[in-house]
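REQUEST FORM: STRUCTURE PREDICTION
Request ID: SP-0412
Submitted by: Lab K.M.
Chain count: 1
Length (residues): 172
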Amino acid sequence: MEEIKVNLDNLTNEERETLLKLVEKIRSKTNLEPIEKRWRGKQDDVYYTVASEGHIVEDIEVESAYDEQCYQFGNYFKTEEEANFAREKHFTYQRLSDYALEHNTKEIDWENYSLSKFCIAYDYHNSDLFIDDMQTVKYPNTVYFTSEKIARDAVEEIGEDNIKKYLFGVKE
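STATUS: Completed
RESULT:
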């Protein structure tokens, strides 16, 4: 889509109002609402982080290097609830990763295209978790298993509802 920049200072009040109404009309008809960016607090705003031991910590934005590091690392949340969700998401992913490390029968060999690699996936159409079978495709931040049974056992151990909620963002 082509981007057009207009200097509103060169327009009369009537032209400016007409242009802004047209932009709003186009935006509403084409669903071009801007996507909300990740929240960053301003000076003295409260934000939340997850400490290394898993506790939720309330901090105040003072534009320090620490604040910047928390933000850049993705450990910077507007609400305590968001921080808690992030903690549970990380914990669920880590439990799944540990389960794979403990139960996989061998290291996943991505160079061997004839061997299946199994991962947990979510079908939004059917609202269901399923075990997907891969040979040559690898997705980022995905835990892989050496067998379908190990993947199913992992779901049983960690909990289908936890996996749906925290790893796939399903709100049931």
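NOTES: The chain has a mean pLDDT of 91.
Reviewed by: T.R.
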